[in-house]
User: What shape does this take?
Amino acid sequence: AGYGGKADATTDWSLLLENPSIDLTDPKMAEVAEIIVRNGLDSTPDRDINPAEKLTPEGLDRIAKRSETDTRLGASNESIKMALNMASQVMEGKARDEMAKLAEQSAYNRPIPSKISELQQLDIMTVWHYAPTGDRQETFSAGMSEQAWLQEIHHVMSVNTRIQYLQLELMARDAVVNAYTLSTMNDDD
Assistant: This one.
């Protein structure tokens, strides 16, 4: 099914990864995101085990394997939820407008919706520091006082600290996913 300019939006991860802000309050976008995740994690789930099967050795084996699979899928899902959470639109109003002003003072080249995500906020702030334009570029270092420089350094360090923390959270989730991937590769079944 087409959505957001994608021919098959239910399998195309670029819909969720191309933009730093995703409107998951839009019911259609939320539905497409859910289908993408479901298709990516478990596109062919096992059929339910009926009560009679649960009493057989084969049924008990299927229950155990399904439990393993569900645990691994849960870990993968947590990594995906973190990535989607970082891109969820949460900032609006005056705070969003301040970010839009920073984007205008830099070489920021992505659209800025009426609500932005934390990921887009960090994106704007890093570009604002990395690639200033106009008056900010011309006056950035010239004539800045020592206190202004210290504030600038503090601001950059704060942005970097937040980015590093988010990386740490993602790495922790990825470590679990990688452990499950390795255990799956080493399964004898």
